[in-house]
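Quiz preparation item.
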């Protein structure tokens, strides 16, 4: 069992997601821990694939570049209304029941209008998705994405923002908000500052910032990038067209 897996505890509660066309190398990663805690345990729930199930994805890519192409092609199908919805039947459910080998990991916004698997026309076991308002790279999310990449083998780490994002917009307005919502603002504020009042730019800047943070805050992810085993990418999903536009998230 890996060091990452051993160190995972039930204190985390990650959520979030990740884009396309940009192939600059960066990285990220994350997942969901809370649901597993106190039930069957994180380790068993998120068990890495065993050989008997690794054939599940007939289209399983062997390189980060191939994985990126699957995402780009899937989003194009979705936006054109030509989805194939593969890997969404009970046969696939049973195939991945005892193990997973997702080809991409995502840090995305929790917005109900941006369901990652649907946007990219993927199915069960294909994507390791973490979602959180504003697609911010919190420490819990980073830990989850490390699991999705280092342990499960995702070849693309994708940060996916979207147009008219409420979290970015709220940060820009700076209005008083209830509860702990304002806790998200600190992660988004640098992008808002750089955008000079332009919401679309703030959304793109935020994707870039979170991707760079993932790369720089995680030695685990950095090593995967250096070995060319992982690509970090970013994009913005258009709520109206369904298309994802790439954001350059290159990290040095
Ligand atoms: Zn949003």
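Solution:
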């Amino acid at each position: 069992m890996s060091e990452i897996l051993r160190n995972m505890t039930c204190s985390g509660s990650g959520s979030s997601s990740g884009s396309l066309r940009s192939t600059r190398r960066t990285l990220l990663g994350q997942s969901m821990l809370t649901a597993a805690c106190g039930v069957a345990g994180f380790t068993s729930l998120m068990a890495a694939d065993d050989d008997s199930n690794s054939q599940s994805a007939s289209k399983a890519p062997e390189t980060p570049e191939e994985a990126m192409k699957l995402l780009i092609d899937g989003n194009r199908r979705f936006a054109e209304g030509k989805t194939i919805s593969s890997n969404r039947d009970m046969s696939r459910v049973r195939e991945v029941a005892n193990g997973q080998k997702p080809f991409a990991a995502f840090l995305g916004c929790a917005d109900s209008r941006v369901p990652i698997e649907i946007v990219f026309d993927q199915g069960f076991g294909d994507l390791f998705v973490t979602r959180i308002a504003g697609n911010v790279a919190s420490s819990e999310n980073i830990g989850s994405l490390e699991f999705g990449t280092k342990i499960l083998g995702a070849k693309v780490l994708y940060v996916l923002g979207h147009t008219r994002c409420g979290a970015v917009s709220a940060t820009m307005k700076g209005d008083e908000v209830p509860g702990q919502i304002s806790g998200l603002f600190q992660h988004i504020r640098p992008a808002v500052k750089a955008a000079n009042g332009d919401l679309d730019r703030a959304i793109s800047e935020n994707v870039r910032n979170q991707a760079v943070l993932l790369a720089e805050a995680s030695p685990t992810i950095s090593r995967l990038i250096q070995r060319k085993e992982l690509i970090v990418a970013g994009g913005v999903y258009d709520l109206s067209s369904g298309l994802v536009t790439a954001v350059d998230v290159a990290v040095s």
